[in-house]
C-alpha cells in the first residue's frame, strides 16, 4: 500500500472513530420549571425533594445513563419507593413503554413491556442529583427512543418534560 493510501486509510479510521465516540456520547437534556409539583409526598419528604429541575438521558460506554436533578434533597426522595425517581422509554410510534424504577433498599431495575428486566445501578452524584445506568441490550431498548423522567411511582409528583416525550438515541451514524 502506498504512503498516500495509508494516510487516507488512517484518516478515515480516525474520523470514523471520532464519529462513533461522538454518537455514543450524545445526551439529551430537558429542563423543568421549579414549583410544578402536583400532590404532596408524605412523611419527611418535602415537595422540593420531588421537584425535578432537569433530567438527561444518554450513553456512558455501552450503558444508558439517566440523570435527574431535584430542587431539594435527592437522598430524601430516594428513601421511599413512592417518591423515588424513575424513567419511562418507548419506541417512536409504539404504544408500549420501557420503565426504570426504584425497588426496595435503593435498588433499581430496567424492565421492558414483556416483563424482561435487568438490574440498574444508582449513583448519587450530588445533594440534588442521581444517575442510573443499565445495559439496554437484554431488554431490547431500541437505538432511537423517547423518554421522560418522573418522581413518584404510583402517584407522579413531577415529570420532565412536563408533557410528551424527549428524544434520545443509543447510537447514530455520522
How would you describe this protein?
With 174 residues, the chain is α+β, with helices and mostly antiparallel strands. Helices cover 16% and strands 39% of the residues. It is built from two helices and eleven strands, in the order H-E-E-E-H-E-E-E-E-E-E-E-E. It has helices at residues 3-24, 74-78; strands at 27-31, 52-60, 63-70, 85-90, 97-102, 108-111, 117-124, 129-134, 144-151, 158-160, 166-169. Strands 1, 2, 3, 4, 5, 6, 7, 8, 9, 10 and 11 form an eleven-stranded antiparallel beta sheet that branches. Strand 7 and strand 8 (129-134) form a beta hairpin. It is globular and about 40 Å long. The two termini are 27 Å apart.
Write the layout of secondary structure elements.
Layout lengths: L2 H22 L2 E5 L20 E9 L2 E8 L3 H5 L6 E6 L6 E6 L5 E4 L5 E8 L4 E6 L9 E8 L6 E3 L5 E4 L5
Antiparallel strand pairs: 1-2, 2-3, 3-8, 4-5, 4-9, 5-6, 6-7, 7-8, 9-10, 9-11
The helix/strand class is alpha+beta
Element pattern in H and E: HEEEHEEEEEEEE
Stretches where pLDDT is under 50 for at least 5 consecutive residues are 3-24
Rg measurement, Å: 19 Å
Distance between the termini: 27 Å
Shape: globular
How would you sum up the major sheet?
Answer: 11 strands, antiparallel
Strand segment count: 11
Residue-averaged pLDDT = 80
Q: β content, as a range?
A: 35-45%
Helix fraction bin: 10-25%
Count of helical regions: 2
Amino acid at each position: 500500500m502506498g504512503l498516500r493510501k495509508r494516510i487516507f486509510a488512517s484518516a478515515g479510521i480516525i474520523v470514523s472513530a471520532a464519529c462513533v465516540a461522538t454518537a455514543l456520547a450524545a445526551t439529551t437534556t430537558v429542563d423543568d420549571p421549579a414549583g410544578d409539583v402536583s400532590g404532596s409526598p408524605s412523611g419527611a419528604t418535602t415537595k422540593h425533594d420531588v421537584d425535578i429541575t432537569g433530567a438527561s438521558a444518554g450513553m456512558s460506554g455501552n450503558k444508558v445513563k439517566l440523570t435527574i436533578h431535584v430542587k431539594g434533597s435527592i437522598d430524601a426522595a430516594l428513601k421511599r419507593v413512592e417518591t423515588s425517581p424513575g424513567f419511562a422509554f418507548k419506541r417512536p410510534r409504539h404504544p408500549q413503554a420501557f420503565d426504570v424504577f426504584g425497588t426496595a433498599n435503593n435498588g433499581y431495575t430496567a424492565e421492558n413491556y414483556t416483563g424482561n428486566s435487568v438490574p440498574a445501578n444508582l449513583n448519587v452524584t450530588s445533594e440534588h442529583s442521581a444517575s442510573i445506568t443499565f445495559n439496554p441490550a437484554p431488554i431490547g431498548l431500541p437505538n432511537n427512543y423517547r423518554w421522560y423522567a418522573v418522581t413518584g411511582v404510583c402517584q407522579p409528583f413531577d415529570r420532565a418534560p412536563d408533557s410528551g416525550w424527549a428524544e434520545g438515541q443509543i447510537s447514530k451514524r455520522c
